[in-house]
Amino acid sequence: MWYKGMNDRNQEIREKVKSYYSELTKLKGGELASAVCSCASDCIPEPVKKIVSELPEEIIMRYYGCGSPIPDRINGCTVLDLGCGTGRDVYVVSKLTGESGRVIGIDMNEDQLAVAEKYKEEMAGKWGFSNVTFKKGFIEDLASAGIEDASVDVVISNCVINLSPDKERVFSEIWRVLKDGGVLYFSDIFADRKVPEEINTHPLLLGECLGGSMSHDEFRKVMRQTGWEDFTVVSSRETPINNEEIEKLVGDIRYTSDTVRAVKPVSNAPCVCCKSQKEYAIPYKQASCCCESSPGCCC
Ligand SMILES: C[S@@+](CC[C@H](N)C(=O)[O-])C[C@H]1O[C@@H](n2cnc3c(N)ncnc32)[C@H](O)[C@@H]1O
Questions:
Q1: Ligand 1 centre and the CA of 3: distance in Å?
Q2: How far away, in angstroms, is 180 Cα from ligand 1 center?
Q3: Does the pLDDT value for residue 283 go beyond 70?
Q4: Residue 72: which of 88, 93, 51 has the closest Cα?
Q5: Could you say which architecture CATH assigns to the domain 8-263?
């Protein structure tokens, strides 16, 4: 079942990506063909590394992220992970948000989700609580997966948005589901130029996150088209490929793995109790609120 309005080209891309990641779950080692979707230990902050060391081996082995898009100070937040795969970041964030937080992982691939689901009970036992939900769905159509307007504090995504042939829809959906002041934090593969169609539709290059990656110009354009103004690249590192066949196919295009932080601005609606404008000290946490009965109040 694909989402409404998807054209034939995009459906074909989706099928290639889906079968690539289903095949991976059948491989014992579960390794991708290149080093693109990988995150060297120096790109993972120490507190995250420590939590990762407590995760089941299979989840670590079947992790295909290219960065560490996990912001600080998310205790109590509702976090949505787009393209959660086998759930590594979901379980890390589950511990960081704590019992009062909530984490939803969405992925279109049932084989990846089955691995994530398998460890739910074990992880609840380890953390001492369960605040995790996995949903099958498309990142272009979060509404069909039941994600309501303005219901999420933080959206994260690790090496997934590059796989979507309809990025405009993805960024529009993220905007819709985030609360005012909410934050999008994602790691993705970017190219140093517009990537040609034969790379964007090549099954191997797509699966390895090289096909479909945006240039920074394309990224800025799609963000502005979908309403985003406040976004920053917070880190960037050259992407290793380490596969001769793939290096030959992409030629002299250079790729980086970048982590981006974007903020959905607070609306100008006045505070419900003092009628002044809302202000948040930390965008995704309404920490500057001094009025416990009306979160968001700034008087
Ligand atoms: C490179 S893996 C990254 C997985 C995970 N974020 C991690 O760090 O291990 C890409 C994942 O995105 C999922 N995916 C790709 N396109 C998607 C889409 N349009 N909607 C939902 N999931 C998608 C794939 O099924 C796969 O699990």
A1: 16
A2: 26
A3: no
A4: 93
A5: 3-Layer(aba) Sandwich (3.40)
